[in-house]
Design a protein that fits this description.
Blueprint: E1 18-19, H1 22-30, H2 39-56, H3 72-90, H4 92-110, H5 118-152, E2 156-157, H6 161-164, H7 170-202, E3 205-216, E4 222-228, E5 231-237, E6 248-254, E7 257-260, H8 268-299, E8 303-312, E9 319-322, E10 332-336, E11 338-341, H9 345-351, H10 358-376, E12 385-390, E13 400-405, E14 408-417, E15 422-423, H11 445-450, E16 459-462, H12 465-487, H13 493-513, E17 515-518, E18 522-526, E19 531-535, E20 539-545, E21 548-553, E22 557-561, H14 567-572, H15 578-591, H16 611-628
Parallel strand pairs: 1-8
Antiparallel strand pairs: 2-8, 3-4, 3-6, 4-5, 6-7, 8-9, 8-12, 9-10, 10-15, 11-14, 12-13, 13-14, 16-17, 17-18, 18-19, 20-21, 21-22
Helix pairs in contact: 1-5, 2-3, 2-5, 3-4, 3-8, 4-5, 7-8, 12-13, 12-16, 13-16
Amino acid sequence: MSLPPVPLPAERIPPGTADWRTSDTRRWLAAVPARWAHPLWATLALLVSVVWELEAGPAAACTSADPCGTDWPGLGVAVVMVLTPYWVWRQPRLALAGLAAVTAALAVEEGFATFGRPSALAFLLAVAFTTAGILHRLAAAGRQRSLALEAAGPVAQPLPPAARTFRRGRLSFILAAVLLAVAGFGFWQAQQVADAYEERAAGATHLSGRVTALDRGDEDTDVVTVTADGRAHRFETAFPEDFPVGSRVDIVVDGDWKALVAEPYDVFGWELLVLGGSVVGLAFLVNGAAGRAGSRRLRRGPLPVLHVLVREGRDDGRTWVFAADDPAGLRPVLHFHSLSAFEDEDEQDDEGETGPGPDDEHASAVELGRLRDIFRGDGPEPPMREAVLYGVPYAGAEVAFVARDDADDDEVIVECSVNAVKPAVPGWRKPGAQRRGRKSVRRSADEVAAGMTPTTGPRTWRAHGFSRAVGLGLLLVEGGGIWAMLDDGPSWTWLLLIVGLPWLVTAVATALTWRITADRGGLWVTGAWRVRRVPWDAITSVRLSEDTLRVGVAKDGSVDLSPTGFVWLERRLGREPRAERVADEMRALLLHPELRPPEEAPPGQQGMPVGPPLAALSVLWGAAVLLLL
């Protein structure tokens, strides 16, 4: 039986505070964006279309009139293009600006010719789909805001003093400054290289020659040979396709120093540093600015207040909000991460304290203990607490709340959100669940057995959709790996192929066709290479470890099947992992003999391993790759 919520002292509940009831929260949850507008689909559409455009789009050749040097405007567009998919998730309004900037750059560069290329047209369609999804999400957030204001009524209260001193964004600003400084250093170094070339080329001899050879250098680099003024000059090049044999090129020569005018220097490494530092630095900078702006909006004036219930999730410390009339916590409404706020935060900073006091050390120890329990998934179930929510809750908003501290029932604390509010839409994990990927709430064998219906024929479990998807993904990795390692001819990488191929074949065959059949005498376990018979009286345990089904066998250790799916992803999508259900049902049959099938499984139901034919196909694929070289 669940305990009643930890009450909030009546004096801490502002007069006229309205209860956020289940009827209101259901309307609020019904206003969430449609599934098609989820950022995942927009991000995937953008990434696929960008990769296609980069692969199929026209690449400008390096020429003497238009040399391949630094392209800072193009790099700026690349920074925005990389940041935009991230902003689709975190900063939808900035994502709209990013999409507009990238689309404008494409239009300026190619104009109406863009519509003549399928890859560019696909990118424009992805931009249109993403824009529609963002606008839909913003409209849904507006509807949620209106519904929350309607539920709160006309009452507005100032933020508690502790929350008014809460500041966000400091760490983000520090990290942004460091990363942008790194990007600036990369820009400075690239410009040093470019300026050095320009200065040297200004006093060098300019010659025009003809390409007489293209070959491979000592370090597996492309080398172009140019004959000019009766002498042969060799240059390393990153784009050999721009210098076909017989074409004329311009070069500059100054003693032992020489360079192609079309490809004067290589600053790719510095440009990559500028790109990486700018992308991550701007991401932190925007996050810090958005957090600082959100906390300022909360402090701007009186806020609507709602009487709710809150609970801290045991799995990740997330704060879950429930309706005021849902003491059992049956339906979460929204969630966010939060931190405690203290009234003396600014005063301590202004006074320049050099270290924590005894009370701070005790509080830090308590917080560390709670964090340790969160990461381990241990500790008691956090209690439901009565709370007052300050601010208008909607997707993307920031809020604060007042509640009793679950660690000390005599203390009332103020907590502020440190990330945007997210609706608890169907498919999200319920608060209080154990940490995914480490522990799961396992049903008892009696509970599972009560839900099972006895069958006369053998009971069979086999690979399902998630498992086959893992198998197909590994099969693509296997085929691509064979091609990549054999493509360059004999080398030491063939040793990696010899070592890794058996494991890949085993994993692919298992994921695609694993099968377990239970009959009167025991289990038929079909893996990648053979079918094993395990009698009931020899089975000591059945359990699921990550993506491995493990049947313990007396004196023989265990019979393992791996991988049997993607347990982590199945849980993230709100589904019960199939392999987990298989383990539960086999455990129930082991402990409840009356549920075991009374018949023996015929050979057709015992399964057939596909490891040997898959290994033969892998060898044939490798032979085909070698013949195609």
